[in-house]
Amino acid sequence: MTELARLVVEGVALGGAYGLVALGFVVIAKATGVVNFAQGTFLALGAYLTYNGAVTWGLWFPLAAALAVAASAGAGAGLERLVVRRLAARPPHAAIMATIGVAVAGDQVITMVWGFDHHPIGDPWGASSLRLGGVSVATVDVAVLAVTVVVVAAGAVFFARSRLGLAMRARAADGELAVACGIPVHAVDALAWALGAGLAALAGVLLAAGTATARPDLGLAALRAFPAVILAGFASVPGALVGGLVVGLVEVLTAGYAPVHAPWLGVNVHQVAPYAVMLVVLWLRPAGLFTASPARRW
To answer: pLDDT tens, 248-297?
Structure first.
């Protein structure tokens, strides 16, 4: 039972990071209708820039992380301004394909600048563990959960109370009506891409901190978080977080129990398990768990 509790805590912590990535996907998709496949690049960029700030330049870790997230958010807004906005008159798949091209190019740039070595970005929480109800929990997992809760709470207040948040909700609900009401749609779109990229960068910092590292394949975490977006149906902000928690739990629990109880599945089955859940959800509810299914005419 203690082992199960430990795995659940690890899964929830990993799911919190995945939820931030999924939230970035959803914010961009709701505002502009584009699935940003460059999220993995922003995720890795956040980790590498934090490494430069905290290790290379010796900045205080929270400051280095904040600067890395801000820089990644600026890069996201720049991508919207220079690439996505110019393709607005084209079919939606044109912008989606452009983000795939940016992702491929961005990964090459990252390896050109930082190489293929693993770079520890720092361990601001220490390698210690906490005792919670008789269960030993890594401090980094508690920190990830705390950061996720704070960010999600701040996001909820932002979308519910601030003028910019309300403008983004209006843009997502009806773009033409938002323009008619005088909402600066282009600025809102740029803000959505900045928020999406910043959330991915923050997730990259959380995934690379502690005993982990900034590494070239870190951006693949965005693809592992993609099933969470499917669970959310590309429309639900709370659903993105819940989907991330489900994906994290499935991945960690599979990694913990499959080698013991089902070794014939292979050593990397935990990387496939979230996609199996995604396929089941698509089969049962093609619109996602948190989106109303469209009416069907027979």
So the answer is: 999 999 999 888 888 888 888 888 888 888 888 888 887 777 765 554 43
Other beta carbons less than 10 A from residue 90's beta carbon: 11
Name 3's bridge partners: none
Domain ranges (residues) in the chain: 14-219
Q: Which of 83, 73, 43 is nearest to 206 (CA)?
A: 43
Residue 213, CA distances (Å) to 30, 210, 242, 286 in order: 32, 8, 26, 36
Instruction: Answer yes or no: are the C-beta atoms of 282 and 44 closer than 8 Å.
Output: no
* 251, 193 contact by CB (below 8 A): no
- The band of 99, judged by pLDDT with boundaries at 50, 70 and 90, is very high
pLDDT in tens, 219-239: 999 988 888 888 877 767 778
Measured in whole angstroms, the distance separating CA 69 from the mean position of its chain's CA atoms is: 13
Closest CA relative to residue 17, chosen from 143, 177, 124: 143
Nearest to 43 by CA among 14, 21, 15, 11: 21
Residues 183 and 167 sit within 8 Å (Cβ to Cβ): yes
Q: Which of 17-21, 46-50, 170-174 has the lowest average pLDDT?
A: 170-174
User: Which three-class secondary structure state does DSSP give residue 201?
Assistant: helix
Helix-then-strand count for the chain, H and E: 12, 2
Q: What is the pTM of this model?
A: 0.90
Residue 224 backbone phi and psi in degrees, to 5: -70, -25
